[in-house]
Amino acid sequence: MYNFIKKTLKSLIPRQFLFKNELFFRYFYAVFYIGNTHQCNICDKKLRVFIKIENEDLLCPFCGSLSRNRRLWGILKEDNTLKGNVLHFSPSRNLYRKLKKNKHINYSSSDFENEFLADYKFDITDINQKDETFDTIICYHILEHITDDQKAMSELYRILKPNGTIYIQTPFKKGDIYEDDSITSPEKRLEHFGQEDHVRVYSVDGLKVRLKKNGFKVSVKRFNNSLNSIYNGFKPSEIVLIVNK
């Protein structure tokens, strides 16, 4: 039902108008999910249940956050690393709204394909910013789209300040990184990499090696199921790379 309503609204309402009034439209559907069993840690709304969507993900009906958005927000609050200049690549609208309101940081976002709310349109392999500009960078589900990921990592290293932090997540697999430059059609990429516009599937160790080759220090946060996971609608297991310069 949720996906049907979402597709219908997208087909009937201009995109910018829909984005601007998203929370208003969401409310009429979300009222049916009000309860006390769960809580979204981004919009703080209490729910009787999250909406289950593709890939067993859990969506907040009020703000539209996915499991990984809520987990990231929890990490950012726990680590307390948000400071100074923050760059966010292709942000979810719920996190964009949340971080844009934070008066303690200089938050900016970028999206190359004009699909997300963004202040800039940076090519991540050639970022039009000075060296050592950003204190924090959020690079969630970006690198698996980038053909020359080594160039992207080099650029991220260049624009990150010393002691700065990057939060990185991609889909992961066990074993080695799987990539094949000869696979270029959307159909084949969906078959091999899990999405029409993905160019590889990383392994955790494989991504760590590539990041370290570009000068980064890398730590891995692994999350497992817990009472907080159920209450806040996190995925039972999740991996985030914390990258420092």
TrEMBL record:
GO terms for molecular function: methyltransferase activity. Keywords: Methyltransferase, Transferase. Pfam families: Methyltransf_23 (PF13489). It comes from the Bacteria. GO terms for biological process: methylation. InterPro entries: SAM-dependent_MTases_sf (IPR029063). Gene3D superfamilies: Vaccinia Virus protein VP39. The keyword Transferase applies. This is SAM-dependent methyltransferase.
